[in-house]
Amino acid sequence: MACSQHLLLLLLLLGLAEFLVFKRKNVLLLHKVIGEPCKQHSECRSHCCATNSLNPQRFCTPQTIFLQCLSWRKPNGYTCKDYHECRSSCCLMGGLDKQRICRPKTVFLQCLPLRKPNWEYCSDHSECQSQCCIRLNEVSPHRCIPKSGLLVQCLPL
């Protein structure tokens, strides 16, 4: 009897008691290590069960220094439906196919819109990468053109 108590005390001191199976609400729970598949936070030693890639499977992940569980979020350039899906929290309409994509933020924490390259059709300067949308002659449609001239201004070529 005393030997079993000493063994249990030794296990607790060595931290090996976490490997034991606990029964809570008639469900067997193992405390899984980081990287193992999970369904609930309570299954993990870190108490964080979240996605860590485009794969919807959830895995035990570490907590942040603020003790938060963070799911993996899409990097810039990936398609998105909502800003919560993106690392930058910027999900904007862009491209010729009008899909929403994750976009970076500026130094001032504003979402950087996708702008049209040179020679694409436009209706306003803000639509162009060059910030220059003009008609090359009276009958042509507006197009994005590179800035030119000695002072690099928006001038017709």
Biggest sheet strand order reads 1-2
Alpha-carbon distance between the two ends: 95 Å
Largest sheet: 2 strands, antiparallel
- Reading the helices and strands in chain order gives HEEEEEEEE
Gross geometry: elongated
Instruction: Tell me roughly what share of residues is in helical segments.
Output: under 10%
Round the mean pLDDT to the nearest integer and report it: 77
- Spatial extent as radius of gyration: 28 Å
Number of strands: 8
| Number of helices, counting only DSSP H or I runs of 4 residues or more | 1
Low-pLDDT segments, ≥5 res: 11-28
The share of residues in extended strands comes to 15-25%
**Structural class of the helix and strand makeup?**
mainly beta
InterPro entries: Colipase
Protein name: Leucine-rich colipase-like protein 1 isoform X2
Keywords: Signal
Organism: Equus przewalskii
Describe this structure in words.
Residues 1-19 form the signal peptide. This is Leucine-rich colipase-like protein 1 isoform X2. It comes from Equus przewalskii. InterPro entries: Colipase. This protein has 157 residues and is mainly β. Helix content is 8%, strand content 17%. The chain is built from one helix and eight strands. The chain has one helix at 2-14; strands spanning 22-24, 27-29, 49-51, 58-60, 91-94, 99-102, 133-135, 142-144. The strands form four sheets. Strands 1-2 form a two-stranded antiparallel sheet. A hairpin with a 2-residue loop joins strand 1 and strand 2 (27-29). The protein is elongated, with a radius of gyration of 28 Å. The model is unreliable at 11-28 (pLDDT under 50).
